[in-house]
Amino acid sequence: MTSNDAWLALYTTLKLAGLTTVILLLLGTPLAWYMSKLKSRYKVILEAIVALPLVLPPTVLGFYLLILFSPTNGPGAWWKSVTGQSLAFSFTGILIGSVIYSLPFVVQPLQKAFEQLGDSLLEAGAMLCANSIDRFFTIVLPMTKASFITAASLGFAHTVGEFGVVLMIGGNIPGETRVLSIALFDQVEALNYATAHWLAALLLIGSMVLLALIYLLNFNHERNVKDWVAP
After folding, report:
1. What string of DSSP letters covers 167-230?
2. What is the pTM of this model?
């Protein structure tokens, strides 16, 4: 494995993780808000569906997504007819798979933050004639900023470490679907332990830095809240 191959795998990984995080924030925020306000008995079913990737083996999810993305089946056939390209073994395919697989890591922190926020501040904003969009950006977002950063960081970090789903859907195509975790697996299979150590260390250090930043952010946020509520 050349240095160019390694940097290409790193670029693909960061590109996948970045796009996945942005999409998850756009889709996960309204979903988390809806779930936080849902009072129906069916809420537990929706929560179970969202949390399913937490317990479902990645290869199982990847296998069923691979079937759906096949050019002979519904979503895959539609994509083929529109774009002329296969959804399976493509960057778009692993992007969709990553969004599904990392969904709970973004939705659950946001849902918990929205539930803890309560309704009193929003009701006060409504009494001041603020519409729903104004209330979200002036009340909800500032009060839950730390949770948004945590959710984004967890979604990004989880996507960086993906292996089973990406391998099942995208295979191992350089510059298209080969991410760092797959490149590491290739080097271990080829007994190139020096390169494998370098890739593993890169993933380990990156994950540790992200987690440290998350915990530091939460610590500072809790301290600021205590200072704010202190008499």
Report:
1. HHHH---TTTT--HHHHHHHHHHTT-HHHHHHHHHHHHHHHHHHHHHHHHHHHHHHHHHHHHH-
2. 0.86
